[in-house]
Amino acid sequence: TKATGIGTATSLPAGVTAAWSDNVITISGTPTATGPFNYTIPLTGGGCGTVNATGTITVTAAPSACTTPIVTDIDGNIYNTVSIGTQCWMMENLRLSSYNDGTLIPIVTNGSPWGMLTTGGRSWYNNDSTANEIPYGNLYNWYAMKGIASVGSTTYKNICPIGWHVPTSSDWDKLAIKLGGSSKASGKMKSTDSTYWDAPNTDATNESDFSTLPGGGRNDEGRFYGIRVGASFWSATEGILIGFAECRDLSTRDGNLYSDGGVPKSYGKSVRCLRD
């Protein structure tokens, strides 16, 4: 009851601090190290003598969201995975040719047929698979996100491997929040490899290991744009207006993760899959 505060705490986990208010010591924070920590917090105040608050905090690592370091699609392509918070993402852009039931996703090279599609289609940037399928993956229109409806049914075949899905808008938002918000997330997601990104790749640190590469896109007239300067990923969420959908964009110019809910479904964009 004679204590008026606390001195410097010792042996708390990194990232954790102690504070004094109204005769209560509050220990809080986000630990960045694991193990048992036997802490000591000296009390201060007249007549206390040498009195310490002591205890033990044990920190254990949260289990990884990814149960396996790789995932294989129906074509046999192998993708590395990365755990970010409670989510498990592919570290690479999708490059498969079929839905997970074996139904082929057509390659559409000509601009006019591409813009008229109302079913799934795919292409490579500049129609050049040799130069662009690896490392950038395929560009898919949004209709491929839902696959091909079965006759008389609204059940859709999945473009992602079994147990995985195209992320919704809320899935992308959850990722952005984990990485510090939309104004910071992109920098933490962009690969720092100057082989693929044009300079200046502003704020790029890739500290999340999401390893984004700028595969560009394809518009509703079939024209390609933006390779080496921007990456754009589909969301499974439709836009407010009919014929539009949501996506997430990253650019060389800053560290923002942009949300766009007004993208025509006939555009071509990259796809990252998220574990169910």
Task: Characterise the protein shown here.
The protein is an alpha+beta fold and 276 residues long. The protein has helices at 111-116, 129-136, 143-146, 169-178, 182-189; strands at residues 5-6, 16-21, 24-29, 35-44, 52-59, 70-72, 78-84, 87-90, 122-123, 139-140, 164-165, 215-218, 224-227, 230-238, 244-251, 258-264, 274-275.
What does this entry show, briefly?
With 276 residues, the chain is of the alpha+beta class.
Keywords:
single chain, 276 residues, alpha+beta, 3-stranded antiparallel sheet, 5 helices, 17 strands, 13% helix, 31% strand
What is the H/E string?
EEEEEEEEHEHEHEHHEEEEEE
What's the mean pLDDT score? 92
Shape: elongated
Number of strands: 17
State Rg.
25 Å
What is the tally of helical segments? Answer: 5
Largest pleated sheet: 3 strands, antiparallel
Share of helix among residues? 10-25%
- β content, as a range? 25-35%
Secondary structural class? alpha+beta
User: Uncertain spans, ≥5 residues at pLDDT below 50?
Assistant: 149-154
Distance from first to last alpha carbon: 53 Å
Q: Largest beta sheet: what is the strand line-up?
A: 1-4-5
